[in-house]
Write a structure and sequence with these properties.
The chain is of the alpha/beta class and about 280 residues long. Helix content is about 45%, strand content about 20%. Helix 11 links the parallel strand 7 and strand 8. The relative contact order is 0.13. The chain binds S-adenosylmethionine (SAM).
């Protein structure tokens, strides 16, 4: 019978520090079962007899692809198309109409999905724009999506989703219009795929030089960071947001008590943030 590997307390402590050092994600002790679950296949495929042997190797080697694999396996990638619905309605009904009006002279718009996971979030924005803002066809529209994980970015760039993923949040008419069925999967159309530029950016490390953005989606990633990281990330976001731009966070996230430069704005059932005037 196949032995189940499990992670001991010291090894889990080392793994938590590794994940924190590289991604700033805080893993809690009650999540140690995840380490058992995700590190076993990594240990096996790298030829280690136990998770402890894998950890011993990581401890003695310079940072490499096995370290990245371990970190990426333990960071949550949960996402879906049009996640939480309301932020996308606010984008469609209020935010984009306002910005399209304001930018009608320069005809350029920059949108950034930071921490985009497997791509459902930026593709949702791309489909929403294609569907409701034909005026932007002739604009300089930059829709950038980033994540620190090369694994999730590889899948995002493919734009290919299984039946379960396609059923989560994507309206049927969007599926039929913007996806093509390939065996058991759904491939997003080239015209949507090409609207999104994917880049590898670690939010807690040095960023490449970026233009200021009109809309930033930074959703469902702050929750994994400690207060000091949240504050320093919001400070950087502030510098990358145009003065009249909008920041969208996840439902369980806020700038309140973290950065007083932001004002909370409500559009119907959606909350977003603007820089104080
Ligand atoms: C729960 S997903 C959220 C995806 C999407 N924004 C959404 O709301 O559906 C969190 C994402 O944050 C990414 N992430 C975690 N730490 C990060 C960091 N330091 N820099 C960039 N991305 C990070 C993870 O790889 C993961 O894809």
């Amino acid at each position: 019978m196949k032995q189940t590997m499990s992670v001991n307390t010291n090894d889990f402590e080392f793994i938590c520090q590794l994940v924190y050092k590289y991604s700033a994600v805080v893993l809690h002790a009650e999540k140690s079962y995840l380490a058992d679950l995700y590190l076993q296949p990594i240990a096996e495929s790298a030829g280690f007899a136990s998770i402890s042997d894998l950890v011993g190797y990581l401890q003695t080697q310079p940072f490499g692809s096995l370290h990245s694999q371990v970190i990426e396996s333990l960071v949550t990638n949960e996402t879906s198309f049009f996640r939480d619905y309301h932020p996308f309605e606010a984008l469609k009904k209020f935010v984009l109409p306002e910005l399209v009006g304001k930018r009608s002279i320069e005809r350029s718009l920059n949108i950034w999905c930071a921490a985009c996971s497997h791509g459902q979030e930026p593709y949702s924005i791309a489909m929403l724009i294609k569907e409701h803002f034909p005026v932007l066809d002739n604009w300089s529209l930059k829709l950038m999506a980033s994540d620190f994980s090369s694994k999730v970015l590889a899948k995002a760039r493919e734009g290919c989703y299984n039946q379960l993923e396609i059923q989560r949040g994507l309206p049927k008419n969007f599926r039929d219009r913007y996806f093509q069925k390939l065996d058991h999967n759904w491939q997003i159309q080239q015209e949507i795929l090409q609207m999104v530029e994917f880049r590898q950016i670690n939010l807690v490390q040095c960023w490449p030089s970026l233009p200021k953005h009109d809309v930033i989606f930074l959703r469902n990633v702050l929750i994994y960071f400690d207060t000091a990281t949240k504050k320093s990330l919001l400070k950087k976001i502030k510098q990358n947001l145009n003065p009249d731009g909008y920041l969208f966070l996840g439902n369980a996230e806020t700038t309140i008590h973290l950065d007083t430069a932001f004002t909370r704005v409500q559009f119907d059932k959606a909350i977003c943030y603007r820089l104080n005037k």
